[in-house]
Amino acid sequence: MKELLAEIKCNKCGFCRAVCPLFGLTRLDSYAARGKLALIEGVAEKELTMKDVAERLFQCTTCKACWTECPAGVEADAIIERARAKLVDAGVAPAPHRRMAKNAGDTYNPFGELPEKRAAWLPLGSTPNNKSAEVGYFAGCFASYRMQGVAKNTVRILQRAGVDFTILGSEEYCCGSPFLRTGQEETAKALIKHNIMEIKKRKIKTLIFSCAGCMLTFTRDYPAWAKKLHIDYDLKAVHISQFIDRLIRKGEIKLVKPINETVTYHDPCHIGRHLGIYEEPRNVLRAIHGLKLVEMEHSRENALCCGGGGGVRSAYKEIADALAKKRLEEAKKSGAKTLVSCCALCEYSFIEVNKGKGIKVKDLTDLVLEAMHP
Amino acid sequence: MLSELKKLINPQRVLTEKSELYTYSYDATRLRHMPLAVVRPVRREEVVKTLKFASARGIPVVPRGSGTSLTGASVPVRGGIVLDFSLMNRIKEIDTKNSLVVVEPGVVYDELNKALAEKGFYFPSEPGSGKVCTVGGMAGTNATGIRAVKYGPTRDYVLAIEVVLASGKVLRLGSKARTTSSGYSIKNLFVGSEGTLGAFTELTLHIVPKPTHFSTARMTFNSIEDAANAVPSMIEQGIRPSVLEILDSAALQTIRSFSKVELPEAEAMLLLEIDGFCDDVETEVKKATEICKASGASRIEYSKNAVERDRLWEARKAAYPCLARRSPLLLSEDVTVPVSRLSELLREIRRISRKYRIRTATFGHAGEGVLHPNFLLRDKSELGMAKKAMKELFITAIRLEGTISGEHGIGFDKADLVGIEHRSSLPVMKGIKKLLDPGNIMNPDKVFR
Question: pLDDT value at position B1?
């Protein structure tokens, strides 16, 4: 951990406590960025052991809320990820994370689902399949195995807009995000290398994502990994919300059917605070006739986390569920009848705790497709 | 021994794991020391039990809010038990008819104001750490903030307290009445005592109506002396600002380099705001800026709406974050003098900075004479020199008829120097401490040694 000390420019002001979602649940400093960075310092200074600090350092959703309040601009999430890599090396990572890595080794996804079923969501008779095209669609593990509706919607929208696109099909592997966020770099490396080669094989120049985590990983981590692996890499990552926003502006899709619904939009951390994508999803929602968009108390840069990211959902489900519930409560208070987002993981986290009760949870593509009818 | 403590308090709220204790070993200073245990009370009885337990064994006890102290006040320098009040954070009563609120000490300042805003009320003074600091910590240090020039320090708002002494005895001091001529004000002794006399378990605070009108002006000057001298001129001519902040050229330069805030080139800046409940605030600001013009203000900008107001505030709000980015090893002081001596203090800060070769950038609440000279260290090797510079700075502030701390408190860092300022009253302070805490278990080594 010693080499991380130079990056920890934390002056211990504790301002991160105001926004850290886990601190909000526990009111313990060890959950806030200040505490976590102190724990890393404690290990570096040999006052604590890796085992002493492992649990707390894995209890971070990497939502980056702390960064918005940090006077010194410390990116605690990035430092915590690097510390996690050291904890993994020391053999003190949580068992569910190790299981995820084993699954990825066997089946190329963290769930251990069959790789040949990865593209089972593809609507029958519509196979943009494994051909070459400038535009590609990367469904990601959640949309492929858990939230197939999102993937189906996306393909339908692209087809109706006349976009010539391809997918990686059963050759799409996990993007590597769950492993990079949890310090399991070796697992991520193999997945990243495979995906880059498959993308190159199909001559894809622009890749579209349904999941905020995949989008962040391809935007931030893939270029760095390609460099490390000595692979030429020239790919533009685009989130589906950005792509649809562009299609609407160019008139390539028309949202003709009014939807008389009051909705609120949940900013996924990994495209929001991490990448600054706030306006495009809202532009799309505003383009739908009859739709009323209301904001929650915390939105855009201040949005609350769904609780699912950073490996927290897989290893500490009770924390993830508590955070998802908190966000759903806020959504209800906004007066909206529907919570809309554009990240399959966020939506899955909400649906799991919502259990079909209370507010409806929809993906942005659900509304876009509905508005495109007839 | 700790197992006995766990029999008295819900063991889930008695922390003894090493990693957890580690996160109670620091505050916003460089000081660190591990506690023996942390107790997280949820009601007064648990504070009483903890203090009786500690008293019987001579174990030090350190009350802690959010651990944002800039003086080491919340660091358990002798180990012992940290009483973490984060979970005692209920707002028990908001009484707008009597303009008061009854709270537990762990309520966060901004959270209190969020609740009060719904009723059109406000708990003033706005410390810089308002998003996270607790009202217990504010009362403990008699904290002030950016609006103290109009609203005064925390002490002015504490109507009553419930405090637990080292022995476990509970005192209820003060009342809900706004004024009293009844007996010694023991309550006021506890405010600002930094947890050395007892631990708060309840506070009754006076609140004020939240202002509805704001008028803001930002003025730049070609000399820091001109800016500083404009302050007493305004006060003398009856101006009652709610904010009157100063920034020196080093602070302005740092903001320019470390943010996107657009700032005119200048040697100094004053930010002035007047709040109230009608449009008169604009007339008052105009009057104030005329005085500043006569004092040498080279450029004056006024806010015409909320967006403009935000723009004028940008530089002041960016000051601390930009300094923190420039130097992660930043030591922020809070020397305070009568406003007529501000320019002398600023001159002395520059002299001391040159003498000890330590970079400084200064901003502060000029309207109440509080300056924050920020010592921007390159690395730890400059710490020794910075300490010497600070000592000279504190002596200078006293010489200028001021104080070594206007709002942060004394804590551990300045405890050796408190005798310089309180030469005649230090023995009295020590006598009071002995009377209320004969075993010296309450936050030992803080305020004085």
Answer: 83
Alpha helix (H) residue ranges in chain A:
21-26, 33-44, 50-58, 65-69, 76-89, 95-107, 140-141, 148-160, 177-181, 185-201, 212-216, 222-228, 240-249, 279-286, 312-315, 317-333, 344-354, 364-372
Other Cβ atoms within 10 Å of A209 Cβ, number: 31
Q: pLDDT for A211-227, tens place per residue?
A: 999 999 999 999 999 99
How many angstroms separate the CA atoms of A254 and A261, rounded?
A: 18
For β-strands B100-103 and B91-95, DSSP reports them as: antiparallel
B391, B271: one domain: yes
Q: Which two structure tokens, joined as six digits, stand for B148?
A: 């103290």
| B66 and chain A in contact, CB less than 8 A | yes
How many other β-carbons are positioned within 10 Å of the β-carbon of residue A153? 23
Instruction: State how far Cα A74 lies from the chain centre.
Output: 21
Which of B383, B399, B415 is the last residue in one of the domains?
A: B399
| Rounded Cα–Cα distance for residues A60 and A31 (Å) | 7
Task: Give A170 to chain B, closest Cα distance, Å.
Answer: 44
- pLDDT surpasses 70 at A129: no
Among B174, B209, B244, the domain-final residue is: B209
For residue B137, give both structure tokens: 């910590």
Query: Rounded to whole angstroms, what are the CA distances from A137 to A164, A220, B85?
Result: 11, 18, 51
> Which residue in B19, B129, B325 is closest to A53 by CB distance?
B19
- Inter-chain residue contact B22 with A69, CB threshold 8 Å: no
**Radius of gyration, alpha carbons of chain B:** 22
Is the CB of B379 inside 8 Å of chain A's CB atoms?
no
pLDDT, average across residues A118-123: 85
CB-CB: which of B25, B27, B131 is closest to A15?
B131
Beta strands A262-265 and A292-294, pairing class: parallel
Measured distance CA(B254)–CA(B374) in Å, rounded: 12
Q: With an 8 Å Cβ cutoff, are A14 and B132 in contact?
A: yes
What pairs with residue B62 in β-bridges?
B82
- B204 and B284 assigned to the same domain: no
For chain B, say whether A18 makes contact (Cβ under 8 Å).
Answer: yes
Q: Within a 10 A sphere around the Cβ of B96, how many other Cβ atoms?
A: 13
The Cα–Cα gap between A253 and B390 comes to: 66
Q: Are B108 and B118 in contact (CB under 8 A)?
A: no
Which pLDDT score, from 0 to 100, does residue A9 have? 87
B437 inside domain: no
Q: Is the pLDDT of residue A125 over 60?
A: no
Q: What is the pTM of this model?
A: 0.94
Is B127 inside a domain boundary? yes
Peptide bond between residue B41 and the one before it cis (omega within 30 degrees of 0): no
CB-based contact, A73 to chain B, within 8 Å? yes
Residues of B in contact with A15 (CB under 8 A): 129, 131-132
pLDDT in tens, B337-347: 999 999 999 99
Q: Residue B168 belongs to what domain range?
A: 89-209
Tell whether B249 and B284 lie within a shared domain. Answer: yes
pLDDT tens digits, residue range A57-112? 999 999 999 999 998 889 999 999 999 999 999 999 999 999 999 999 999 999 99
Angle subtended at Cα B376 by Cα B373 and Cα B381, rounded to the nearest 5 degrees: 125
Average of per-residue pLDDT across B99-127: 96
Nearest residue to B446 (alpha-carbon basis) of B409, B420, B405, B421: B409
Count of the separate structural domains present in chain B? 3
The half-sphere exposure of A339 on its side-chain side, counting CA atoms within 13 A, is 30
At A157 the pLDDT is 95
**A306-325 pLDDT tens trace:** 999 999 999 999 999 999 99
Q: Does B72 share its domain with B116?
A: no
The mean pLDDT value of chain B amounts to: 95
Residue B115 lies in a domain: yes
Q: Which of B272, B289, B297 is nearest to B221 (CA)?
A: B297
